[in-house]
Amino acid sequence: MKKAGILNRHLAGALAELGHGDGVLVCDAGMPIPDGPRVVDLAFRAGVPSFAEVVDGLLAELVVEGATAAEEVRAANPAAAGLLQARFTELTYVSHEKLKELSAGARLVVRTGEARPYANVLLRCGVFF
């Protein structure tokens, strides 16, 4: 049994399978989940776990070379927008509709219990060397 890091076996296993360039969508409870990507649903109840908790947990385990978020987050959810700007130096904004289109190409979707709008980010995996 693991003693640190991500303990959820489904999520830990899915992360171990990721490679350079793979996409990981971290999404709120309301984001439509496309057919295709593997899904690890962490949502327990509204707000649990939060978008921030999941993003920070993933960043402790993954090399991320870039991220894409919906431009609507800046006006509709300043807390999530601030978190994204603080965590990602390579952050691109697209429309929410475009983000939903891009999410279909993700290899993994991690659904949080976040109940605030536009708390979604598509991560692009990098390499550690």
Task: Give structural notes.
A 6-stranded mixed beta sheet has the order 2-5-1-6-3-4. The chain has helices at 9-16, 51-59, 73-76, 78-87, 96-103, and strands spanning 23-27, 38-41, 64-70, 91-94, 108-111, 121-125. It is α/β, with parallel strands linked by helices. It has 5 helices and 6 strands.
How large a portion of the residues is in β-strands, by DSSP E?
15-25%
Q: What structural class do helix, strand and pairing data support? A: alpha/beta
* Mean pLDDT value: 97
Q: Which strand order spans the largest sheet, edge to edge or round the barrel?
A: 2-5-1-6-3-4
Question: What is the total tally of β strands?
Answer: 6
Strand count, sense and barrel status of the largest sheet are: 6 strands, mixed
How do the strands and helices of this protein lay out in sequence?
Blueprint: H1 9-16, E1 23-27, E2 38-41, H2 51-59, E3 64-70, H3 73-76, H4 78-87, E4 91-94, H5 96-103, E5 108-111, E6 121-125
Parallel strand pairs: 1-5, 2-5, 3-4
Antiparallel strand pairs: 1-6, 3-6
